[in-house]
Amino acid sequence: MSILGRLALLFVIIPLLELALLIQMGQWVGVRPTIGLVVLTGVGGAVLARAQGLRTMWRLRHDLANGRIPGQAIMDGMAVLAGGALLLTPGVLTDLIGFSLLVPGTRHLIQKRIMARLERRIQEGAVQVVTGGELWSRSPHATPPHATSPDPIPPDSMSPDSMSPSGSPGE
Fold first, then answer.
1. How high is the pLDDT of residue 99?
2. FRET pair for 23, CA 20 to 30 Å: which of 84, 115, 119, 124?
3. In whole angstroms, what is the distance from residue 171 CA to residue 164 CA?
4. Half-sphere CA count of 1, side-chain side, radius 13 A
5. What backbone phi and psi angles, to 5 degrees, belong to 134?
6. Structural domain total, the chain
7. DSSP single-letter state for residue 165
8. pLDDT at residue 8, as a whole number
9. In a domain, 134, yes or no
10. How far is CA 83 from CA 58, 95, 139, in A?
11. Bridge partners (DSSP) listed for residue 169
12. Interacting residues of 69 by C-beta distance below 8 A, sequence separation 6+
């Protein structure tokens, strides 16, 4: 799907679908219960997002204190932030997705699916990562990272044997 198609889905189609669902729900159960449900999911989502956010923050601090990279804690933090934002958005579908991102069990299932898709797209060469001016890609046609390195000094010239007492290479 193109970027324009995704933006149309995000900003036009989903809000229209949410509005239609809220109107239908209002006709089934009444206007006040529908508005009450929207307010309740917003408040409940904020409380749950705060609790899960604090839990994630403690796990992040624990990982850092123990010298571990907090990868899962960072992913959980991003999911909790997205889930909280979706719960503050009025609508039935966004509430379902938001709650699923706040509950640890469903959050981890969603994260696994996203990571599997991302890894597959990297393997296909559809996703490329640029870090520090180097291009990292698993595409068979991609340039190896060392070939695009802006460093004029070859890595093997930086061995301890080639270093002079002053610490500069090649003296």
1. 92
2. 84
3. 6
4. 8
5. -105, 140
6. 1
7. T
8. 77
9. no
10. 19, 8, 33
11. 163
12. 63
What's the rounded Cα separation, in Å, for the pair 41 and 47? Answer: 10
The answer to whether residue 138 sits within a structural domain is no
Cross-strand bridge partners of residue 131: 134
Amino acid at 128: Q
Q: How far, in Å, CA of 86 to CA of 111, rounded?
A: 16
Residue 59: give the domain boundaries. Answer: 37-129
125: left (phi over 0), alpha (psi -120 to 50) or beta: left
pLDDT score at 135: 56
pLDDT < 70 stretches in the chain = 132-171
pLDDT of residue 168: 44
Instruction: Confirm whether 125 is domain-assigned.
Output: yes
CA atoms of 47 and 37, how far apart (whole Å) = 15
DSSP codes joined into one string, 39-82: HHHHHHHHHHHHHHHHHHHHHHHHHHHTT---HHHHHHHHHHHH
Indicate whether 161 belongs to any domain: no
- Return the pLDDT at 137: 53
The Cα–Cα gap between 110 and 131 comes to 26
pLDDT at residue number 124: 87
